[in-house]
Amino acid sequence: MAERTPQARAAAIRRASAQARATMNEYDQEMLEQLRDLYLEASQRIEAEIDKAAGAGDRVALDRLYWLRFQIAQELQRLAEAWQSLLDQGLPQAAAIGSTPFSSALAKDQVDYINTQAVEFVRRYTAADGLQLSDRLWRINKGTSQRIENAIEMAIIRGDDAYRAAQAGMTAAPDALGAASPGKIKGTIRDLMTGRGSALYNAQRVMRTEINRAHGMAYQAGAAQTPGTVGTRFLLSPAHPEPDICDVHAAANLYGLGKGVYPHGKSPWPAHPNTLSYVVAVFEHEVSDQDKSGVETEAQAQQRITAPASARTPYTLDQLITLGQEVSRKLLRQAKAQYGELWPAKWPEIIYQALNETVGTNTPARVASKGAGADLVVAASRLFPDSWTKAADDFGPLTAKKQDSRAFYRPGPNGAGLLAVRDFGSTVHEYAHRLQAAMPELDDYFQQLHVSRTAGDPLRRMRDLSPGYPYAANEVAREDDYIHPYMGKEYSGRNVGRAGALEVMSLSLEWMLGPNAIQRERFAEYDRELFDMTLGLLFHYAP
Q1: Do 259 and 251 form a contact (C-beta atoms < 8 A)?
Q2: Long-range Cβ pairs for the range 524-531 (8 Å, 24+)
């Protein structure tokens, strides 16, 4: 669909930004794994040199120390060159991922320049400790070399002293006699190279910090040059391990642009090395009057975020999408590993098991009526998180009936509701409407996304969007790029949320949890943003 308004262009960039974050998360893991392979291979080559130095004996003799030190120095130099090459490859690729969301708004030469400048910035950047990237690499490589050389030298000398003492009839400690054994020395090398707090840990820390810096700098530069943007939001990763200064940066409204939003050139990102946080572009029309009047100091923000958990700000859309991306990657990897394909017939079992193990499912809804309709509702409700089912039960009494005509959910007074269902798929869909009524704050995430994606799109009659279907003349929708026009349907009246878009949530949950495997695969393939957000909510939202 053509982008006709600034709002539509902003929505497109927002979707592209979410995809760029997902791509960067995958690339980050790929680079760390490649770096790990380099260190494991170097460790294995060094271990082979240790075996050569020992020969057929049970220890490395002192007269082999100089030769072994030379061989190890050669291997460590080879490692340093390999991971320098990997970093040289990673920086421009990370920058390109960062600028991609703005490729439709900027000329190609602008994007190329942004990428080049981001990489140059990373190389020239001087951190608070006074070190540039080249200095940091030299320090890591030098430190690795010194620790390994010292460990090997001490082991060989200690073992040689113990060996000579034993030869002279003197008592030597058993651990000293074995200090120069190939197995003992190789174990020490493995710990120094790839164990906890090892050379690999330090190298991965630098790798993650610098490729993410290149990504973030390119993204911020692209945002700054895109018309209509006012700054970037400091986006706290859902994988953020524990509270730190990032929480303050992501919560503070220092400039009247909204929580965590900073004018171009003012963002505190990245707040520290090895960061898991991102930034996302904010457009002028997204800044509300409440944002403008809600300016606070950093100290006030700190006080606010340390309030009890019940008073804290819920997840943002971007955070939920990122959470969902992590879940979907994990589940799809599991499906591929277990069944050799991404969308096996067993996919429902994979997601149901993961949900049950993570948040708890399988609790049946309370249904006041009896019969086939009630049985379908009980079965469908077991698919959803237990906390969601409980919220619906607490909302009011529910009755159900089975019929052959069009299914529906009809709300009643005092939280009562009637579900008219046709089959299991329609039951999942209509029970989602029941959850929607019981938890409007859950539905609001879907409606927020709908509003951002359809900004500027006109309302069109459903019968025009889907000719041949028996839609009434007053059934209307905003089309967007939904895989089915019905998803964009908008209702009017009371209790319909911020935009009346009640089908976004119900169809998303039906396609995610229902029996239609083809529709679920299409959902993931053609609307990954909504697919990921749905997973993020299923696994992380609690009323």
Answers
A1: yes
A2: 524/328, 524/343, 526/481, 526/483, 527/481, 527/482, 527/483, 528/19, 528/22, 528/328, 529/15, 529/18, 529/19, 529/321, 529/449, 530/449, 530/504, 531/324, 531/328
Query: Residue 456: inside a domain, yes or no?
Result: yes
Report the alpha-carbon distance of residue 239 to residue 329 in Å, rounded: 14
Structure-block tokens of residue 430: 């209509």
Within this chain, do residues 18 and 131 fall inside the same structural domain, yes or no?
A: yes
Q: For the CA atoms of 435, 440, 446, 452, what is the dihedral angle to 10 degrees?
A: 170
In which residue are the tokens 């730190």 written? 244
What's CA 20's distance to the chain center, in Å? Answer: 11
Domain end: 309, 342, 359, which one?
A: 309
The tens-digit pLDDT sequence of the chain (543 residues) is 344 578 788 888 988 998 898 899 899 999 999 999 999 999 999 999 999 998 888 888 888 888 999 999 999 999 999 999 999 999 999 999 999 999 999 999 999 999 999 999 999 998 877 888 888 889 888 988 888 988 888 888 887 776 677 677 776 566 666 777 888 899 989 999 988 778 898 899 999 999 999 999 999 999 999 999 999 999 876 555 556 778 788 888 999 998 899 999 999 998 878 777 889 999 998 888 888 988 988 878 777 666 544 444 578 888 888 888 888 888 888 888 777 877 777 778 888 888 887 888 888 999 999 999 999 999 999 999 999 999 999 999 999 999 999 899 999 988 999 999 999 999 999 999 999 999 999 999 999 999 988 887 889 999 888 888 888 888 999 988 788 889 999 998 877 888 899 999 999 999 999 988 888 888 888 888 999 999 999 998 988
Tokens of 517: 């495997």
Single-letter amino acid, residue 344: P
* Whole-angstrom distance, CA of residue 44 vs CA of residue 27: 26
Does a cis peptide bond (omega within 30 degrees of 0) precede residue 243? Answer: no
Residues 336 and 283 in one domain: no
Which residue, of 205, 237, 252, is where some domain finishes? 205
Alpha-carbon distance of 394 to 365, in angstroms, equals 10
Residue 220 covered by a domain: no
d(CA 455, CA 461): 17
260: containing domain: 228-309
Q: Alpha-carbon distance 378 to 407, whole Å?
A: 16
Are the beta carbons of 502 and 432 closer than 8 angstroms? no
Rounded to whole angstroms, the Cα distance separating 303 from 19 reads 33
Q: Are residues 325 and 303 in the same domain?
A: no
User: pTM for the whole thing?
Assistant: 0.62
